[in-house]
Amino acid sequence: MYLRRIRASNYRAFGDGSVAPALDWELNPGLNILVGENDAGKTGIIDAIRQVLLTTSYESIRIFEQDFHIQGANRSHTLSIEATLCGLSPDQEASVLEWLTFGVNADRKLIHSG
């Protein structure tokens, strides 16, 4: 199993694509390297992955006000994070079902692609 694609809009440094670019990163099976200058969005990418995959660490996985993208003086009212997983075995597919949870104002979506 591997993470094939991560997309995020209006999440932290990533806008909706109209002014600030949204995140749309296609990963390869195996090793992927994330390199960039300070404040380029590297931590935002990692945290977006943690948010959508519901990390099992002891840290909180809640969305906070500061997670919503700010463009100029305006803060976004919605954000979106989407992950595409590939190469799942039947057992892995079954284990992913527990990741599909819905909260009061949260909608997590997992897309399975062959």
Automatic annotation (TrEMBL):
<dbReference type="InterPro" id="IPR027417">
    <property type="entry name" value="P-loop_NTPase"/>
</dbReference>
<feature type="domain" description="Rad50/SbcC-type AAA">
    <location>
        <begin position="5"/>
        <end position="69"/>
    </location>
</feature>
<dbReference type="GO" id="GO:0016887">
    <property type="term" value="F:ATP hydrolysis activity"/>
</dbReference>
<protein>
    <recommendedName>
        <fullName>Rad50/SbcC-type AAA domain-containing protein</fullName>
    </recommendedName>
</protein>
<dbReference type="GO" id="GO:0006302">
    <property type="term" value="P:double-strand break repair"/>
</dbReference>
<dbReference type="Pfam" id="PF13476">
    <property type="entry name" value="AAA_23"/>
</dbReference>
<dbReference type="InterPro" id="IPR038729">
    <property type="entry name" value="Rad50/SbcC_AAA"/>
</dbReference>
